[in-house]
Amino acid sequence: MMVPVRCFTCGSVVGEHWEEFEERAKEGDEDPEAVLDELGVDRYCCRRMLVSHTDLVDVVSPYQ
Amino acid sequence: MELRVTESADTELSIEIGGEDHTFMNVLKGALLESDDVTTATYDMNPEQSGGQTEPILTIKTREGVDPLEALEEAAGTVREKTTSFRESFEAAA
Amino acid sequence: MPGEYDVEFVERGDREARFLVRGATPAFANGIRRAMVADVPTMAIDEVRFIENSSVMFDEQLALRLGLVPLTTPPEGEFVEDDVVTLSLDVSGPATAYSRDLVSGDALVTPAEENVPIIELKEGQRLEVEADARIERGQTHAKHQGGVAVGYRHLQRVEVVGDLEEFEDEESRIVRGVIEDEGELLNAEEFDNDLAKRYPGKEVRVEDVPDAFVFHVETDGSFTVEELVTRAADSIEARADELEEAVQL
Lengths: 64, 94, 249
What we know:
By secondary structure, chain A is mainly α. Chain A has four helices and no strands. At the B-C interface, helix 1 and helix 2 of B face strand 1, helix 1 and helix 4 of C.
């Protein structure tokens, strides 16, 4: 639903990078690998948190 | 930290150290083994799920004529000296 | 024999650092590491009272998210167990509630990270909460864990032992961590973790340096790396003191 606050595996805070990552790599056409490197999300456990995430708030909000 | 002696003899001691885990016990065991007065030092600990003893039990055997409780006290002092020295070196580098 | 440690920083930042410790036994190195992960207490939200929550997430889910937000941890001794700092948050949609919207009752305890999204609120939705932060050890819950991905490796010494034979294929030789080359410390990432790139055409030997550990320490923002390491040492020391005293009686 919302992006996880921390990486499930190592506990590093990844939530803060989501909006920039989404804007630049998911909606924009930048290379996700380069964006993650630039954001300082180095470990693959943290990278998958952002790469595999989908926001679902818009999907569920009509059914409140 | 709650201590409970489970077995005691002249040169042998088993003592339960309540509330501790590997973090401290392994450092303590290492410090005990550095002493020449100590011949054997080990600790035993089981996971909670095993249903047995969960608090660590430290077993010390010492050289003839050495009180194991004193060896333990000395080892605790060694650990303290180690941490103090480590912190000093670290702060000097930082 | 105790003492005589030699500490040297390889990389250094507020939240991430790599440093070499010489003269430590494996037991001591591991004790410090474990203390950093599970024994150094940090502040985190522990109890949340919901005044209004009309968002798409349940109270429990939001409480978990709030708990995971790292908070700055005050100096040692400032707070003890069961001391409580109250933070409040009040956001009305359409807007997103961020960690920076948490208003703390104590300037020493504030969100360490400003831009963590808590929940996206649509038109007409509102979130108003009051949360209590407590100081606890990492052992009780991962949200109280100050050290992130804390670990160590042996320092590796690299020695050139000769030249490769003229027509021998050059194979890559991967190493990780930090190497020591004639007294110089070098992160293996600097040569792409491949010794064949640093010593082309050479035959090298790699060996672990005994009792030399390269720690990699990262914090979640609760405090600096230095603070975390010294507090870890303090926590072991406090227990050694306690044991010494208990045995004397």
